[in-house]
Amino acid sequence: MREMTNGKMSKATGANTNIEKQTDTSPADMNEAYRRGCKLLHEKCKAIQRSNERLVFRLHKVRKMTKTRMRDVELLKARLDSHHDDWRTAPDPTDIKEEGEE
Asked: For bias kind Polar residues, which ranges apply (predicted)?
């Protein structure tokens, strides 16, 4: 096949033949591909949402544990103070070296 460009005859390029060889996809196939893509995207969104819900649940649980711990520490401090324990001036056990250590 020859084409005329600028008044000269030339051979058809490979790009032109590729365009002619392409098969058109039917609209039904394109709709089905679109549906599959949407379904996959929807599944990924649901998986991310489930993961986020688990993280939020864990965050609430940790906050509750932290609040409970702080309340327990305050109760213990008050109880020790009510017994006139000298716990505030006691040395830190991590600072005390045992006899074998140097």
From this structure: 13-28
Most confident stretch, 18-27, 34-43, 85-94: 34-43
Q: Which H helix or E strand runs over 1? A: none
pLDDT band at 24 (very low <50, low <70, confident <90, very high): low
Q: Which DSSP string do the residues of 19-49 spell out, in sequence order?
A: HHHPPPPPHHHHHHHHHHHHHHHHHHHHHHH
Pairing of strands 8-11, 2-5: antiparallel
The answer to whether 1 and 12 are in contact (CB under 8 A) is yes
CB-CB contact of 60 with 54 (8 Å): no
Residue range 48-94, pLDDT digits in tens: 999 999 999 999 999 999 999 999 999 999 999 999 888 888 887 77
Residue 49: exposed, middle, or buried by beta-carbon count in 10 A (0-12, 13-18, 19+)? Answer: exposed
φ, ψ (nearest 5 deg) of residue 3: -115, 155
